Amino acid sequence: MAPADSPFQSPQQRSKARAAKREAVLRAAVQMFNERGFHQTSLDDVAASLGISKPTIYHYLGNKDQVLLECVTIGLSQLLEAAEESRRSAGNGAQRLIAFLTRYAQVNMDDFGRCVVRTGSEALGPESRAQFQALKRKIDTAMRELIEEGVADGSLAPTDTKLLGFALAGALNWPGRWHDPKGALQPAQIAEQLVAMLAQGFLPR
Amino acid sequence: MAPADSPFQSPQQRSKARAAKREAVLRAAVQMFNERGFHQTSLDDVAASLGISKPTIYHYLGNKDQVLLECVTIGLSQLLEAAEESRRSAGNGAQRLIAFLTRYAQVNMDDFGRCVVRTGSEALGPESRAQFQALKRKIDTAMRELIEEGVADGSLAPTDTKLLGFALAGALNWPGRWHDPKGALQPAQIAEQLVAMLAQGFLPR
């Protein structure tokens, strides 16, 4: 390892610096995609906002399609992680589903989750699109498995699993479009209230 | 009026022919926007699919931004019409809301409704965007009024009107993304089942 005052970076330092730069580019890109729309954003704009050049972005991440794929992959990984965490948590099926949905809604109000919600698969090139759709199918599957477990242990009402999955996903993706990150309501509150509405239904009990 | 065998069209015939041509262009455009994405569709493609030239589209509808605005305006008008019809219908607030939501979901699986769901406002130019957003606000308002009427007459559970409106809109916009018009399930069935899930909630009653 290089001594602390060496003008040369150690391999660890180089790798850490590289990861930090990559993340800074992704963060700047995802925020611009969310605000202006993917098609209205150029990598030149992203580069300019960081005081770097477009070739630097190519170096760290690749072309615009690859940058978008990376952004949505981060968002989808956060959703998958939420599903895995809920699967491991205590409680009955309904409680695990509610824990997952609450986290799911929150992720969709974060930078990378918003990007997933705002990205139509037609925006990506054929190869990236296939990866994007495969990851989304994994989330759909995880959601359906959680529902099935709840129906199996009697904590959820018997239902059309696929359709309920779509209903829940739709209701909880939507905040990625309407929620204003500068607004008064916190994502955690919104998520909790939305999930309670879906759990209880709008007809009086 | 020109006699039936005249080689010249009457004003009525001309106006009818013009409306039919306008509609054919809109139908071809909206289907291509939905299938390929707005940014991946050129008016040249739309024109070619009808065996006409791009200037003919300009003549009937204007530029691509204006064509998109017209498509989403038709979709949003269908949603508004559904709201007005439900307001006039018999039954208590919950029944009127359910009638509206069922029609709302169906429209979102039609060509023009799908286009509304798939269009982010950033795709439109500033002026068209303002019109698009104003119309969407009208639908939000209509949805909230229906909810408030149901809470007022006791047929709906007391709730955060705005948030419930977003939850319902999200769940029922989503089919405009996932529903396959060539799939086995009919829009009317899907709409009815989705609305029942939202009304009942996923916890057993």
TrEMBL record, chains A, B:
Record-linked PROSITE patterns: HTH_TETR_2
Pfam families in alphabetical order: TetR_C_24, TetR_N
Annotated ranges, domain HTH tetR-type: 19-79
Region feature (Disordered): 1-20
This protein's UniProt keywords: DNA-binding, Repressor, Transcription, Transcription regulation
Binding region for DNA: 42-61
Protein name: TetR/AcrR family transcriptional regulator
Organism: Novosphingobium pokkalii
